[in-house]
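re: that complex we talked abt at group meeting.

here r the seqs, copy pasted straight from the sheet so there may be weird spacing, ignore it
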Amino acid sequence: MRVDQLSIFLENRAGRLAEVTRILSENKINIRALSLADTSDFGILRLIVSDFEAAQKVLKENGMTVGRTSVVAVAVDDTPGGLHRILGILGEKKINVEYMYAFVHPHESKAIIIFRFDRTDMAIEVLKENSIAMIPGDQLYMM
Amino acid sequence: MIFDVDMETLPRDELEPLQLTRLKSLVERVYYTVPFYKKKFDEAGVHPSDIHHLSDLKLLPFTMKQDMRDNAPFGLFAVPKDNVVRLHSSSGTTGKATVVGYTKRDVRNWAKLMARSFMAAGATHRDVVHNAYGYGLFTGGLGAHYGAEELGATIVPVSGGGTKRQAGLLRDFGSTVICCTPSFALYLYEVGLETGINFRELPLRIGIFGAEPWTDTMRRDIEDKLGITAIDIYGLSEIMGPGVAIECHEAQDGLHLMEDHFLVEIIDPITGEQLPPGTTGELVITTLTKEAQPLIRYRTRDITSLNYVPCKCGRTFVRMKRVTGRSDDMLIIRGVNVFPSQIETILLETKGLAPHYQILVKREGPLDMLEVQVEVDESFFSDEIKGLQQLESKISKNIKEFLGVTAKVKLVEPKTIQRSEGKAKRVVDLRGQS
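got the structure back, here u go
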């Protein structure tokens, strides 16, 4: 149930983000979801892409520092309280969310939330036990 | 193995009388043949007949790099110009270039000292030496070249530049020894990987590195990546070139100074007083055998210390510690003395960081600001901001703790700090520009 996320180190300067999108676009790699964390000097761009291996390869070839992070994609009903229920369950088990970002399901009335947990395996267990739907990587990349 | 057993293992009670004989004759020679020295000795009130013991060395005046510039090109020659067979010159980046002349015997001695150095590094006549030191006016290239030939090894005179081609040559010729700067070795390794050449799979087994400061941590990094024994060599063109001192591969613990040719002292760079053995200070060298251009008490500006403990390799020559900085490269940050190599040590020991860094000194208002830029490497990259920020603050905490200065640490993208094919530019001082 793990999903591969690309993490890319970027200096906080004009044009660095465009460099990433240029490389991906030239290699016909689609971005499914993204989030950017920033400080005054640098940022970390996190991407879910249509082809992880290809994206990692071309970004590295272009001299970027790229990491692979395991995240979990959860489908949540697009109704009030949907996210709250999930966070409540995880909180009870003392699982910490390092960061998260969301996008709307392209075909169903659901939101997809990408979670980075401190204890990924345990989080997956807890979500399974509570019958919360997770989206496997191969499905997400092709969405 | 030892190239010149008689000299390199000479008991110290025989070495010192030999040094004294050579010193006396040197002092007399320069006094009567080089007007510059006569004037300096007269001003200092010292005469060649005053030298009775090695300890009388301290009576003699120092020679500075500026003296070489002032007397360039030929003012310090102690032989007629007809007897000079080669001229080298050091880069004039910090002022007027300095010139060094060699007689036939000087050139031969140099080759022998370099042959000793190769053998101390573990090389023999069966080795193939890839020499990536620049050939030309710089002494590194030709110094290593004639030394390898004297040893009877096969020399590949590659010189500098053309990194990709060099990686290919290294593989195709099956070179077993490489001579270059430590930063170039790492650069070559990276370029090799990009072109599918893994140095660990090549017959390369020894690296002889010099011409720029480096640290033990960087040595381990190079040894690990390239799969070789990395040896530190020391020399400076004013004195001769490479081969003034070399580590032995048996101990890899300090560089044996070729004391039959060079008389060494450590002084306090501020007061000029001689310091007791083991104390850190500036290395001062007197060339005992140089004919064309002998130097009396030359201030090298290199900071080191001397270790007289006998070495397990059998050589009796004193060992100097790896040069930890230069007294003129020393940065003074808000009144604190900082050597770039100290910052490198901290970086490398903080968390196996890649040794790609640059130190920026700026002035913000009345204050000196030290910024250390470090390239992010996959080995410690994290997808979480806090992970990288913790690393930044850990480095700056260590700098504060060990050096007593506050530094801003900035992570930068890989390959943004300029890679050089010669000496790495580690320090950018912008204080003079505001």
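couple things i noticed - Chain A touches chain B through 22 residues (CB under 8 Å). The mean pLDDT of chain A is 92.
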